[in-house]
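Complex record, two chains
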Amino acid sequence: MKIKYNLIKTDKNCKARLGNIETNYGTVETPMFMPVGTRATVKSLSPEEVLECGSGIILANTYHLWLRPGEDIVKKCGGLHKFMNWNGPILTDSGGFQVFSLAKNKKKDITEEGVHFKSHIDGSKLLLTPEKSIEIQNKLDSDIAMSFDECPPASADYEYLKNSVERTLRWAERGKKVHKNPNQALFGIVQGGPHEDLRKFSAEETVKMNFDGYSIGGVANDGESKEDMYKAIDYSIPYLPEDKVRYLMGVGDPIDILEGIMRGVDIFDCVLPTRIARHGQAFTHTGKINLNNSKYKEDLSSVEDGCDCYCCKNYTKAYIRHLISVDETFGGRLLSIHNIRFLIRLTEEVRQAIKDDRFLDYKREFLNKYKTK
Amino acid sequence: MKIKYNLIKTDKNCKARLGNIETNYGTVETPMFMPVGTRATVKSLSPEEVLECGSGIILANTYHLWLRPGEDIVKKCGGLHKFMNWNGPILTDSGGFQVFSLAKNKKKDITEEGVHFKSHIDGSKLLLTPEKSIEIQNKLDSDIAMSFDECPPASADYEYLKNSVERTLRWAERGKKVHKNPNQALFGIVQGGPHEDLRKFSAEETVKMNFDGYSIGGVANDGESKEDMYKAIDYSIPYLPEDKVRYLMGVGDPIDILEGIMRGVDIFDCVLPTRIARHGQAFTHTGKINLNNSKYKEDLSSVEDGCDCYCCKNYTKAYIRHLISVDETFGGRLLSIHNIRFLIRLTEEVRQAIKDDRFLDYKREFLNKYKTK
């Protein structure tokens, strides 16, 4: 079967939604943060550790897995779940974001057919099309596949975005036509930058194609402002159906997650928690802390008091600081566990708040404590 | 209490010994391989994973922990066990090996007082003495400390080695004098290169000082031949007491471990299993395999059929090869688990063989299968 989204309730005071997604790999609750396993591994973590963080769905990258090891090898290994030993649901992106971002400084040629670009690994010439993206995702056998969309730069003007939105719609249709995996849902992506009419047009036309869920894209490409992100959500959500899941792509900052949830978003993904972990940074309810700071040298407390993660239950800041400062990967691993757990715990708290119709209170209380400096 | 070695039995057909070591952190069986946690972490692994490999004692490096984070910080954190969340026994080396090997290409000045050298991190001038080494290890609070010895290069001539052995004896005595930790055993180290008379002299004089255990050093510095290693063991063992544990330092090749056990060695340590893992290599009973090899691209079998480790129970060669080839640390982590488990399983099999007085048969059967090419 494909996934099924069930809306349980909406908070009385805003658009925040409580729901769940039934999948072939279990039912997961929303709002939810999805850890990213770019190359079929959530960096440095075992599947058991990711699961212990409370993860529902994880995300894997079509572009990266297409190049290495190749979708045919993953298929021969029984699909992505079996390949990486992950028994929960998996969402694959379309590869579009990577084609546009990794090839940022390289020549790329966007045509109606697809995108001609050079591999970031060996410079070989490649062509990714809507059909190819779906074909790869079909073979990867993820539970949720994404339509191949154009990810225009934040600097793109209205005219560019208008053409881009129209092309993305044509690409979505082409992808849908070749999508064949009966156990895989396919999501459409709403684009249109910060422009109300383009978002409306993109959302309405995408919804007409009747996808299994909808994403809001173009908010985490290369430095879009927070305001533009919130506009993008506000201008898209009203045109998305209540009975389908809504996914804000590439967003993992705690504040942005809360802003997204308030506006009616259900799922989020981002490399942020694992990336900042490798650099020694940890989320806490009072803001991010940097374990490289020498003030933690002899600090016998855990990264965050009251946190129930493996890192906080067993290790001191002093030890983690040591590991980070001597470049031992176990340090990044511990902080990755903490940071993922932090975001998932955030969504757990949010779900309870929505149940109690007090999401806005929860959000205000969180923001009061969380310092961004 | 300090450790207590109990000799259970010796194989009828050779010097291989079955025994155990009582420590404040539990009783561990010998012969045994000790994984290395250089900087208070067995690279990429959690303590739970190391324990699940069947590890008894782990080794930590005095030199590295002295420089970072510093022994005073470890002490403030409650000692090494608490600092790194390891509830089993820990052996610390003296720092001597690192001073001699890391400073190999740098100017160092060996005096009667100790070794003047430059930090491999920032080039600052340092002095490590027998007293300082013991003082650091006292603070680290390991279960077993090592005497500070000189590790002469394999190229050293007889005259050099003779002087070195004598100095090492004087250093051992100075270290023993300042050793104060009542819960920490102190081992003496036998040196003397491949020379029978020097090894005899070194062993006899070291044993006169009545240490809690004895190491055979100078066999894994910088390219000593296998023959010289076996000579070093053969010439040292006869002078070591039966009721004390014997430790061959820096040895982790499966064949060398078996050769050592046959000659009466009880414990071994080496970075080999974790180091080769990070480069994609895995031990198997038919020899080492290299997961970088493209022939494993679609190989759905585990690293070693019949292995009971987490890696082999859950992952295919194809997946591990993928992780290694895209430089994901989870690949090295999985192979580290396998390689450590392999060596520990080897010693488990050896212990059973000694029980049955068939160690020599076991060794022959192992060597028949294990290809070194």
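Note: Residues 8 and 19 of chain B are 5 Å apart (CA to CA).
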